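Forgive a beginner's question, but might I ask you for the amino acids of a protein and the tokens describing how it folds?
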Amino acid sequence: MLAELLIGTVAAGGSVSFMHPLSPDAAQAFWRNSLAAAARGERSVLGAWQGEALVGTVTLLLDCPPNQPHRAEIAKLMTRPEHRGKGTATRLMRTAEALAIEKGKTLLVLDTASEEGASGLYEKLGFTLAGEIPDYALKPHGGLTGTLIYWKRIGEPA
């Protein structure tokens, strides 16, 4: 289900580090590696479900360099198109933030595509725009897009 969600997100133009068309083998390999990293405690992969259907996911990256033990990064926020605008991404983000606080983190960072990214969602959730890097990555269907860098203080400072 994770691979199917990733393939669908990329096909719909979601800028999550992959190009369209994304093969099932590549999507499955990504998730195998991601779940192995989660088993090692390097990240947490959260899912949103409707019944037995996976409708969204977000990853909380926890394995930061030794001089950044207070920080975590949000990555790969994906929601099935038919579930967008229904609060799924907001619930996933709030759960990821609560988990980060539980793990002693006091700073969250993330990036999103300048074009068609989720900047409105992140700003609504209290993230602050640090800046934009132009021409940062290719869009899934080709052409360059910038990336917006966001941060948010959480929990109690160490």
Q: What stands out?
A: The longest strand covers residues 128-138. The two ends are 38 Å apart (CA to CA). Helices lie at 2-11, 24-39, 88-102, 119-124.
